[in-house]
Design a protein that fits this description.
Chain lengths: ~290, ~350
Amino acid sequence: MADKSIIVKDLTYRYGKLLAVDHIDFDVDVGEILGLLGPNGAGKTTAVKMLTGQIRPQEGKAILLGHDVVKETEKVQSQIGVCFEQTNLYEQMSALDNLKLFAELFGMKDFDGYALLKRVGLEGRERDKVANYSKGMKQRLMVARSLVNLPQIIFLDEPTAGLDPVSSEAIGNIILEERDRGATIFLTTHDMWEADKLCDRVAFMDQGKLAALDTPRNLKQQYGKRSLIAEVAAGDKLEKREIDMDVDSTALEVEKLFEKEKVVTLHSEEATLEDIFIKVTGRRLTE
Amino acid sequence: MNGRIVRALLKKDFALFMSNRFYLLITIVAVVFYVGIYFILPSDVDERLSLAMYAPVLPPAFSQLTTQDAAEIELFESEEALKEAVLDGDYQAAIALPADIMEVWLAGGKPQITVYYSAMAPPEISAAIVALVKELAYIETGQALNFDTTEEVLGPDMLGDQIALRDRMRPLLAIFILLIEILTLASLIMVEIEQGTARALLVTSMRVSDLFIAKGILGVGLALGQAAFFMALVGGFSHQPLIILTTLIIGSLMVVGIGFLVASFSRDVMSVTGWGMLILIILAIPGFGTAIPGLLSDWTKVIPSYYLTDTVSRVANYGAGWGDIGTNLAILAGFTALVFWAGIMVLRRRYQ
């Protein structure tokens, strides 16, 4: 129990007749990055709201850092950081003042806002009004705000949605740094590449239920197919050849290919999390 | 309550208030505007006698009244029209002469003259009218004649308590300043809900109660600060300053409670403005009754702000003490407690 940051049992939430989160169970280890993947409306944000004490579960329970999130909401909230999907910063205040406010709310002494802003790449713009920031800068500030209290669990709800590659990479690096610090990361996303790159384990959520939960590698092995894709010359054109990598005859097939055909390019290809999500749920992540 | 958290929230709210030009503008403009209005309004009482008269038979000497400099006299064709004109505030007093006035005088009798007073008539008017009629009777008959007068005040009797218009307006202006903060507070709350910053606050170690305390302190501070500043500038604290201050504090708390309610049932800032203005207008109505006695009837007592304006008016203008306005303050405090509780309950649901 002590090495688990999050333990979720039978967690359920309904909006009227709509079952948004349907009796889900899972746990997250200390220092683990768990990615919760699912299309819009799958119930990810509702799950995060319950885990962060924003709404009360109607059934089941969630234990964070040994505390029941309903009964000991304050204790839980003092040790978590939350980065919301929608930007919700005080736009008329400076970035520094935004961070200072939350540092005061958490009672953080000797808080160094400049250092945190530098860490997310906002040095030199600390005293600018947030209203004048670009979307990427605001998102980086949102991530910085979720780190103000040196949280033991960080909830990041679609932190890179709609961002440019530079901002996305910056946020990805911060997530990995926080994991190295020992924090547990709960990452909600429908970006399969981000999840594959960052997460120790991923959970597929669809229509309020957890459809699968494992490491990306295991999921790919269980549900995916690895192959070699070759482009061969056929007269003036290029033709594609595919060789299954998960069968005993792979080496023989490759040898034959090189003997009989003029191979122009050769590369390996494996199933993406998107492919696996489709296989498991029958739906696309981006639906 | 966590003092550190409330301080941080207050600091943030004040910074947001100061950074919003609209809030800042309406706050400053409201005070300057109302103080300006107060000083523009006449500070003295109009002592010129405006008199209406109904005389089925007009004695010749009475027609001289229309040439008097000190009096403005208008003849009416019926006693009902005469009373209506006084009630409408067109005249401070009116005289209704009986049809047989001359016959009764000539027969050595005492005719019955009815005098109607406006609620705002000065106390001296009664003696002035009697003296005027006596003089006219003397001119008419060449000797002092007796007559009886029946006096009737139309509207609430304020004879002897005439107050300059600007002082009668003072409670109305003060309540306007208080009430405008309903819009400011509700807008501040609504912006936080709309922009989602309230959600961000609620996942920290802050309790919802800390949020309400901070918003309450800010609302009371803004409303009370401006209203007290206004009252100090216009001499509203010259009588019983403690009662006035207590009344304004309760009024400010009422404003905060209403601000919470408006924010809780509004959809957005535009909706806050719509609902807020509607409530503001309703709550301002009793203030007009204080400014213009007789304008409104007793139904205004169902509007809670009546007890605010009536208290301020009676204390600041008539020197009323705790004993005189105790019931008013109790009713006002009761309503404030109710609206404050309701506001917190409903807004808490909105936040959560």
